[in-house]
């Protein structure tokens, strides 16, 4: 992405760096996240100035997103040059000078001549010699959110995006079949479009070469390319998910290092990871021997994509495998740029769908973990209370010696996955009751002679312990489940302590997605649709930037 120092005209830079190598080199400084932050800052600016000098990917994407309300402004400094160009074309025509695209055809037909220049304008396309008033009219259409209806297919981006751009020209000249979309999505004809856009002039009667100026350009393909590149740069930041600093430092691949840095930054210090580490220390068997292959190899395949995507902003191959010459072989190649941009847009949509599914699934997992924490907490509390009531107190109310089994019982609860028993927590065939019984039996076997005394026997109290659990535990579990669903959980969601909380809030907050349960009629597809639409509107940008606001451009020292 080309970065131009603020306040400096292109002419002053050209005298020092005529080939713009310095500008290109500056744009590659820093990491990919730095570039994304710079793009987002440009994307958020409320005004884009058109002066014919610089226009960045982020600025094009911002203007294309109508919901942002970005305004465009023409540089008054360019007015004189534009008018001089238009006057020069008219002067040459009046003096009988042969002009390409005016008194001739174009391409292989440029040798043909005509005496009816006005009629030829209805067929010819080329750039130059346009009036400033037409540019002002287009600016008003943009600022009033009036969008001409045009087909995206229909161009190979050879001479230009002729067919799509001709629909814009049709609106400017008041074509009877021209249509536009208004600020609220309402259909407009050409006259209504001019009225809504506050264009005072009548429909334009195009002068020589103005049709060429309007239609023979690659604005459609270039805009599509800018939009998909902007979204690709944003979305690629969201993909990383696994780290090992030493491995990536030793390999010295900058994209891989940055991907791993993002992966390590987001979960660092979170309560969820801290608790997992504590559980693995208590019971190493609960820790996987190694992480899933797709997870642990993520930095290796994401890194090259991060590096390549930056260079694709300058260089891109044709959509075809081999060069395609145009039909009359009078130009080098057909780039098929618009087709390439449209296909890339399809890939971006697929990536959004994948990320949507991924985010919703992660948020479901986080909500299930929250429910898990609350259910396990109540199970441990009830087990502890009933153990004290039935196992540690004798018939005379005194504490029984060596009957403090609460710690071992609670550890047994921790070792059992809650989904294996929570549908019927007091079932004798489920792991919870079996593990609790095993703890008590093991303690009874250790005690030996004390088991012969009814006042100190554990075996004789196991039945009362289990009977009490069967009465109390199911009711308490259902109460906790209801409280969590109603938003009154005793234990807060641990995701609030994580750096990724803005992304969780993006999915579950204003969008209204929630935990999917069998009692609800909401389908996963409905939740995906909410998140996908919000992502298409650019609402995910702020949550991503908020999650990474503390990450600098060099989070891992390079060996």
Automatic annotation (TrEMBL):
Q: A Gene Ontology biological process annotation?
A: L-phenylalanine catabolic process
Record keyword Disulfide bond present: no
Q: Where are the transmembrane segments?
A: none
Query: What reaction does this enzyme carry out catalytically?
Result: L-phenylalanine = (E)-cinnamate + NH4(+)
Q: What is its EC number?
A: 4.3.1.24
Name the principal localization, coarsely classed. Answer: cytoplasm
Instruction: List localization entries.
Output: Cytoplasm
UniProtKB keywords? Cytoplasm, Lyase, Phenylalanine catabolism, Phenylpropanoid metabolism
Q: Name one GO molecular function term.
A: phenylalanine ammonia-lyase activity
Identify the GO cellular component terms for this protein: cytoplasm
Subunit comment for this entry? Homotetramer.
**Protein family according to the UniProt entry:** Belongs to the PAL/histidase family.
Outline what the protein does.
Answer: This is a key enzyme of plant metabolism catalyzing the first reaction in the biosynthesis from L-phenylalanine of a wide variety of natural products based on the phenylpropane skeleton.
Q: Can you name this protein?
A: phenylalanine ammonia-lyase
């Amino acid at each position: 992405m080309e970065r131009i120092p603020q306040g400096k005209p292109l002419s002053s830079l050209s005298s020092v760096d005529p080939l713009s190598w310095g500008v290109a080199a500056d744009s590659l400084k820093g990491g990919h996240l730095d570039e994304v932050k710079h793009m987002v800052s440009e994307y958020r600016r409320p005004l884009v100035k058109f002066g014919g000098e610089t226009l960045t990917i982020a600025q094009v994407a911002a203007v294309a997103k109508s919901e942002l309300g970005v305004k465009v402004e023409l540089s008054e400094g360019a007015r004189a040059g534009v008018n001089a160009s238009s006057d020069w074309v008219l002067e040459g025509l009046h003096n009988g000078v042969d002009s390409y695209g005016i008194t001739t055809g174009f391409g292989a037909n440029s040798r043909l001549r005509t005496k009816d220049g006005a009629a030829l304008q209805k067929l010819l396309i080329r750039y130059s010699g346009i009036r400033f008033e037409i540019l002002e009219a287009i600016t008003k259409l943009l600022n009033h959110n009036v969008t001409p209806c045009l087909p995206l297919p229909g161009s190979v981006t050879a001479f230009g995006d002729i067919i799509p751009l001709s629909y814009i020209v049709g609106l400017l000249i008041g074509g009877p079949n021209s249509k536009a979309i208004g600020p609220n999505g309402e259909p407009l004809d050409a006259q209504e479009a001019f009225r809504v856009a506050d264009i005072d002039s009548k429909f334009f009667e195009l002068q020589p070469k103005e049709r060429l100026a309007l239609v023979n350009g690659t604005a459609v393909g270039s805009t599509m390319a800018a939009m998909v590149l902007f979204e690709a740069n944003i979305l690629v930041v969201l993909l990383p998910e696994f780290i090992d600093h030493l491995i990536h430092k030793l390999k010295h691949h900058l994209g891989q290092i940055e991907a791993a840095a993002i992966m390590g930054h987001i979960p660092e210090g979170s309560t969820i990871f801290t608790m997992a580490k504590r559980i693995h220390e208590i019971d190493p068997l609960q820790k996987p021997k190694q992480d899933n292959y797709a997870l642990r190899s993520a930095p290796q395949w994401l890194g090259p994509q991060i590096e390549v995507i930056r260079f694709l902003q300058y260089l891109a191959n044709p959509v075809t495998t081999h060069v395609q010459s145009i039909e009359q072989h009078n130009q080098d190649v057909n780039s098929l740029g618009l087709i390439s941009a449209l296909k890339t847009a399809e890939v971006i949509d697929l990536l959004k769908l994948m990320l949507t599914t991924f985010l919703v699934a992660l948020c479901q997992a986080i909500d299930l973990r929250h429910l898990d924490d609350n259910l396990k907490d109540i199970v441990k509390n009830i087990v502890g209370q009933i153990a004290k009531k039935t196992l540690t107190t004798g018939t005379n109310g005194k504490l029984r010696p060596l009957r403090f089994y609460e710690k071992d019982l609670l550890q047994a609860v921790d070792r059992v996955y809650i989904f294996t028993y929570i549908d019927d927590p007091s079932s004798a065939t489920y792991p919870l009751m079996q593990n609790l019984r095993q703890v008590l039996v093991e303690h009874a076997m250790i005690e030996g002679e004390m088991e012969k005394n009814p006042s100190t026997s554990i075996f004789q109290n196991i039945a009362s312990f289990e009977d009490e659990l069967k009465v109390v535990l199911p009711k308490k579990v259902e109460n906790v489940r209801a409280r969590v669903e109603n938003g009154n959980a005793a234990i807060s969601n641990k995701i609030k302590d994580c750096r990724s909380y803005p992304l969780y809030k993006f999915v579950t907050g204003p969008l209204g997605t929630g935990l999917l349960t069998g009692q609800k009629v909401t389908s996963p597809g409905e939740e995906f649709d909410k998140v996908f639409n919000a992502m298409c509107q650019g609402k995910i940008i702020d949550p991503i930037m908020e999650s990474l606001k503390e990450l600098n451009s060099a989070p891992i020292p390079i060996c």
